[in-house]
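Supplementary Text 2. Reproducibility record for the structural model of the 226-residue chain.

All settings were left at their defaults, and a single model was retained for analysis rather than an ensemble. We include the record here because the model underlies the residue-level annotations in Supplementary Table 4.
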Amino acid sequence: YPASTTKVMTAILALKYGNLSDVVTVTDAAVITEAGASLANIKPGDQLTLEQLLYGLMLPSGNDAANAIAVHLAGSVDAFADRMNEEAERIGATGTHFVNPSGLNDPDHYTTAYDLYLMFNEALTYPKFREVISTSSYTANYLDGTGASVSQTWMVSNKYINGEEETPAGLTVLGGKTGTTQAAGNCLVMASTAENGDEYISVVMKAGSRPALYENMTNIIRKIVE
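Retained model, structure tokens:
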């Protein structure tokens, strides 16, 4: 189970088919009631640009932002999931099946570590994706359904980017996407750059805890410079 690493594909479709300057009116589809679900805290009637929603998708891992993007681009969450599966097939991610844009758990929503690499590699072809995943915080200013101004600041969950985890010497972490559910465990896909400019994508899935996730990831990326 990919948990919120799913949002890499949601971002790909937003960047490939959307216009970042589009103003999106949030619908009831963005109301997420699952306990513990990560949110960007947007509400039905709010009006944000697709670019702002992209930051709300990737930094605080907003499941509400994922659904808002899905409805804007495809008319419904289910129709968007169909497009996610079409894109996965196009890039060769044949062990993947999506049923939602967020990664909330479902038995029919799954991927593989290799497929996640393929999707992240595709996402890195978009300069905006690189910009978003390397951002530690982002402030969105927008209007709610009554026309009142709203301001929110979202923080990134990747501990290498926010400075909570030390990056091995000789490497620069470009950014990535975390994902956590009880079924998926702790997941992270991310890109790093060595001093010679070579880029690497690394994946950890189903780590038993957040500390174990970063211990595993650090052990993997340290191999780049050893």
